Amino acid sequence: MPATEYQGSSTPFSSIGRSILSTRREQIHAMDAGHHHDAGLDQDLDAFQRRIAALFHDLSASAGDDLLSLAWVRKLLDTFLVCQEEFRVVLFNHRAAFGRPPLDRMIADFFERGVKALDVCNAIRDGVEQLRQWRKHLEIVLVALADPRKQRRGALGEGQLRRAQKALTDLTLLMLDEKDATGSVLSHRNRSFGRSSGSSSRDPHHYRRSSGGHFRSLSWSVSRSWSAARQLQAIGNNLAAPRGHEVVATGGLVVAVFTMSSVLLFVMWALVAAIPCQDRGLGIHLSIPRSYPWAAPILSLHERIVEESKKKERKNSSGLLKEIHRMEKCAHHLTELMDSIQFPVMEEKEAEVRQGVEELGRVCQSMDGGLDPLERQVREVFHRIVRSRTEGLDCLSRYPE
Fold it and tell me: Where are the annotated segments for Disordered (predicted)?
């Protein structure tokens, strides 16, 4: 399914129909924990685990040289959205067990992890906006160094080079600011993916009272002291594989909760790794037993991204996104090239500048086709997390112990 064509479901829990996990008739089996064995639950959980494994195997196999490119990050978000929808179906089909310990606590913990992920989504949206600002400076370079055959003077002039050099210098300073600053200018004008309804953003029940598409994060904007690294740590706190007695007591539903929690943590971590945001940190350890069928591809991707971050040319990057790396290389190459130019410009030097400009144009093209769809997907992830939490809390209130 193309990333730009993915349409999130707005169907409430009560009207979910058949899904990949529900080819059998939809029947809700009340579980008497430890006494009644639900074969349907076993089938759903097994199908869910295999589905997650297949999705991440595909994501890992498709990475190759495209790992951390805009196209790959968009596929990552598509994968998350499918996982979220399948998890939603599992919970709906067995919602009668929601209020029973320890499942009630574990589901509540999952929803709180989701709340923390909302701020990551807001920070990533700011990062996308930052990339757009960088893209504007590249456009100045492209216009300044346009093919002289299309210009009246017909030769690469000193004014053109100075204008391009200034744009590249400004771009370099912006990128250095992003690497070094604890907060960016964008943090002062962050727009959440929703609208204020007048309720306190610190009200833990705010999501349950919201309706339609008017949601907002618990923190309306990312403050200057906000840290992506600390937020990821908060999402991963106390995230551990369920123990045997917990699996038995819940009929295995805690396995699905742990699976989706791990997927949430990995996806948020990968976004922070790729896109510029405040206080990026990649030191998150994934405690996933390899016995899970989806563990191998996720751990493999985690390892490959960490290795990419350790490369000499990527250590100080403001983001591991492939397009950022290409942008930095092109800008550095053109800057060095123009610094070495003397007038009148030699034909050989002018040809080198043209080659650099062509590569820069290709980088701009790839960003033009990827940033808007990426922002729409991050927006969809934000709203899907909010919707899932709202519906889940509603189920918890309807099926108390």
Answer: 187-214
